[in-house]
Design goal:
By secondary structure, the chain is an all-alpha fold. The chain contains 8 helices and no strands. It has one domain. About 30% of the residues are buried. Keywords: Membrane, Transmembrane, Transmembrane helix. InterPro entries: DUF6580 (IPR046487).
């Protein structure tokens, strides 16, 4: 299963750089989900370096590409904020892995996407002179953004879709492999806990 997880994460990282070849793929990449799923399925914490380093490197490359193509200065504060978001995604993944629930798998993916959205757009609001440093300006950064660009909320919609799509695909493939190889899965662990809770009650009835 570990090999399959590595392959899936590498494919997702390759997908992350597609916008440098075709801009129609921009903002559909599963930013938070790559780190999140890596932490959920990699029991060896040393392997968390793969999704984290991969995200940091691809993010640096993609944003350098945008800066070169559109002639703006690459802001290191934005890069640091995204790195923090990736690290938080790892933390969410570890937290979900200790609960072993499909519901928490979905919740963790949603939380990761929301965290990335709020952190990056709040930083844009704070550092961009275009936005008024008021609650109204912050709300504009989160929803409308700059008038010459598509609304910010559209970018959130795309990244949320990308995170949920990748999490579902990643978990689905990993659980299918686990079932095929008769290995433990998140769903199996949840069922075992449920059965364990029912056994004492059944024993009391028999007595």
């Amino acid at each position: 299963m570990r090999t399959a997880a590595i392959v899936l994460i590498l494919l997702a990282l390759a997908y992350r750089v597609l916008p440098t070849l075709d801009m129609t793929w921009a903002n559909f990449a599963p930013f938070a989900a790559i780190a999140f799923c890596g932490a959920v399925y990699f029991r060896d914490k040393r392997l968390w370096l793969l999704p984290f380093a991969g995200l940091c490197l691809t993010d640096l490359y993609v944003n350098w590409f945008y800066a070169r193509e559109y002639g703006y200065h690459l802001e290191w504060t934005g890069y640091v904020a995204r790195v923090i978001s990736f690290a938080a995604g790892l933390g969410l993944g570890w937290w979900v892995s200790t609960r072993k629930s499909w519901l928490w798998l979905l919740n963790g993916s949603l939380l990761g996407a929301l965290l990335f959205y709020f952190v990056t757009n709040t930083l844009s609001w704070w550092s961009d002179a275009f936005y008024a440093k008021t609650l109204a300006g912050w709300w504009q950064a989160l929803t409308i953004g700059h008038p010459e660009y598509p609304p910010t909320i559209y970018f959130f919609r795309n990244t949320l879709f990308g995170d949920l799509m990748f999490t579902g695909l990643f978990a689905g493939v990993m659980e299918w492999i686990a079932k095929r190889n008769e290995e433990p899965s998140l769903l199996d662990d949840e069922e075992e806990e449920t059965e364990g809770e029912k056994q004492p009650a059944e024993a009391e009835v028999k007595e």
